[in-house]
From TrEMBL, chain A:
Function: Component of the ribosome, a large ribonucleoprotein complex responsible for the synthesis of proteins in the cell. The small ribosomal subunit (SSU) binds messenger RNAs (mRNAs) and translates the encoded message by selecting cognate aminoacyl-transfer RNA (tRNA) molecules. The large subunit (LSU) contains the ribosomal catalytic site termed the peptidyl transferase center (PTC), which catalyzes the formation of peptide bonds, thereby polymerizing the amino acids delivered by tRNAs into a polypeptide chain.
Complexes and interactors: Component of the large ribosomal subunit (LSU).
Keyword match Protein biosynthesis: no
Species annotation: Durio zibethinus (Durian)
Xref: InterPro entries: Rbsml_uL18_euk_arch, Ribosomal_L18, Ribosomal_uL18_C_euk
Record GO cellular component, one term: cytosolic large ribosomal subunit
Limits of the Large ribosomal subunit protein uL18 C-terminal eukaryotes domain: 235-288
The name this protein goes by in its record: 60S ribosomal protein L5-like
Keywords noted in UniProt: Cytoplasm, Ribonucleoprotein, Ribosomal protein
TrEMBL record, chain B:
Keyword Cell membrane included in the entry's annotation: no
InterPro entries recorded: Ribosomal_eL21, Ribosomal_eL21_CS, Ribosomal_eL21_sf, Translation_prot_SH3-like_sf
GO cellular component: ribonucleoprotein complex; ribosome
Keywords: Ribonucleoprotein, Ribosomal protein
Family membership noted in the UniProt record: Belongs to the eukaryotic ribosomal protein eL21 family.
Organism the protein comes from: Durio zibethinus
GO molecular-function term, one example from the UniProt record: structural constituent of ribosome
Chain ranges passing through the membrane: none
Ribonucleoprotein is among the record's keywords: yes
Record's protein name: 60S ribosomal protein L21-1-like
GO biological process: one example: translation
Amino acid sequence: MPYVKAQKSKSYFKRYQVKFKRRREGKTDYRARTRLINQDKNKYNTPKYRLVARFSNKDIIAQVVHASIAGDIVLAAAYAHELPHYGLEVGLTNYAAAYCVGLLLARRVLKQLEMDDEYEGNVEATGEDFTVEPAESRRPFRALLDVGLVRTTTGNRVFGVLKGALDGGVDIPHSEKRFAGFDKDSKQLDPEVHRKYIFGGHVAAYMRTLMEDEPEKYQSHFGEYIKRGIEPENMEGMYKKVHAAIRADPTCKKSEKEPPKEHKRYNLKKLSYEERKAKLIDRLKALNSADAVENDSDEDDD
Amino acid sequence: MPAGHGLRCRTRDLFARPFRKKGYIPLSTYLRTYKIGDYVDIKVNGAVHKGMPHKFYHGRTGRVWNVTKRAIGVEVNKQVGNRIIRKRIHVRVEHVQPSRCAEEFKLRKLKNDQLKAEAKAKGEVISTKRQPEGPKPGFMVEGATLETVTPIPYDVVNDLKGGY
């Protein structure tokens, strides 16, 4: 084999500086995070809340978080897998579901802070740009959108979460440039298109085209929808009901879980500090008594 | 070429980041709050170019007299000629750390208040003044045996054998 110069020498490892752990995991964008968390010093301990929207393959996680030195503190959270409680069982990661999760989170936060009567937000989801107006007694709840590592293109689902939270009554500084339905050329948001997306209109349109052109693909792709009898026509009604159910009762429902089963332990359990000290004392005692039996002289008590 | 005396002259090593600590600075520096009257240490972070104090203030400790959006006003003592001036500078928070110089004092204050409150409840009079360490108490030496040490007569043969 020809001589290949070793790429990673010992000095490479010695000099290597690891990135922050969450950067190594590829989960946190620290450049964005420093700018989101930094609070004006003359506001002292006032928390700066972020609306965190993250998407996994099958779930949406939305949280209202504020940072502290010990760790971030979550004020309220909403997940897409809670939406079955409100009547939405399929399509849990689409734009419409994202809107529902944002709405649920906003109502939950406001209810927790007892501001939900003052700040109703936008009850009729029209797709227009809606900003919360300050009420008489308290200023609106302010949060900043934290998208994470997502590429912020027009019509991204994180902006669905944003729209849901806005309509729920949370004050989030934003621009309508990235909502679905924003036209690049005319530089205007078309509220009709946005409204279509909020009510799953884009999914319904796809369902219709598939039904006509490729019925087999329709069966395989939208199997769960068919099983629950969801037709493209009644999608909007379904989402309206979900919105109403969310506004009616946004509190989190705890599910009953049995305590996890005890598993057989395959490795030795680590001893606590007291246990280790006790073991050492026992060992020394045994040593001393053994020596006393053997011989008395020349034994250092180390 | 004459020596330069620019603002950051002679700071090549002083402002350099320590080994393997380059790059992003940990976020706890931004999350700390400072109130007027706190003591802070000034330690320049070379990675942040804005709001850097002059190299003289690196390593100084001062009190906070002003808090602005991103910076803190610190009052530091500087000897100028034959007097010490209290200089007021503004420093960004990345170059500042909370000082522990007053920590012991604060803890002692709390403890003393607690002790005084307890003594008042019981009706005793206590002094919370710190006392310096006095001379050690006297003690009897235990297990002392007398051993007389006398020099041994010089033995040439033995010493030469060892030393060569």
